[in-house]
Design goal:
single chain; 3-stranded antiparallel β-sheet; 3 strands; alpha+beta
Length: 120
Amino acid sequence: MSDQQAAPEGRIQFPITTALEFPEWTIEHNIGLVFGLVVRSMGAAKGFTAGFKALAGGEVKQYTKLLEDTRRHALDRMIENAQVAGANAVISFRFDSSEIGQSLTEIVAYGTGVVVGPKQ
């Protein structure tokens, strides 16, 4: 699996890794913490049908899709935050999530923004 964020056509790829460094680049400058935060609600109608599915057991596809979309959105926000701060890559990348009440989910994508250059 690549350390780079998959990018739709026309978008520049932004290197991201869960590791502390990139083997192919030198970290020239440490920008610091960068993050992207999203809080989402399933919505009453979808939450109601997902609740029935949860009672029956098995994967609740409505929640899976919601969380996948929310993680992508949080990742995009983190990349924007990193670029605004002057980073051209992120190391030590992680996701975290929590519940807010009974109907909201918070997803945060975070890592250390860095400026990388070619290995010397």
